[in-house]
Amino acid sequence: YHLIFSSSCTGVLHLLEHEEEYVFTLPSAYARSILTIPWVELGGKVNISCARTGYSATVTFHTKPFYGGKVHRVTAEVKHNPTNTIVCKAQGEWNGTLEFTYSNGDTKVIDTTKLPVIRKKIRPIANQGPLESR
């Protein structure tokens, strides 16, 4: 894959083996507990779209309420635009357990903490463009 971030907070992910290009926005990052143990929280909506496949997704990163609530909570919806069909919804923690519910009634649970770590393959920095991410 090939990942580029532009200065307008939009990224482009090229899945070369599938000849697909995904355009996506980025969530906001909030610095929390600056005076004690600092941590970063993601918040806001991320939009992802692929013109070739006609699929798009909206991912909402929910910030923790002042009292109670969970951190790192996320909800998402995947849509097939040509048929205006919601094909999948997801909810959970982006750094924990996510539950996917498909339009046919199937569900799937993924624990992100148990996924294998796969090192990224990147081109040498000298061969990268000025807007590419290392």
UniProtKB/TrEMBL annotation:
Molecular-function GO term, any one: cholesterol binding
Alphabetical list of InterPro entries matching this protein: OSBP_sf, Oxysterol-bd
GO cellular component, one term: membrane
Pfam families: Oxysterol_BP (PF01237)
Coiled-coil segments on the chain, per record: none
PANTHER family: OXYSTEROL-BINDING PROTEIN-RELATED, OXYSTEROL-BINDING PROTEIN-RELATED PROTEIN 10
Name this polypeptide is given: OSB10 protein
Organism expressing this protein natively: Spizella passerina (Chipping sparrow)
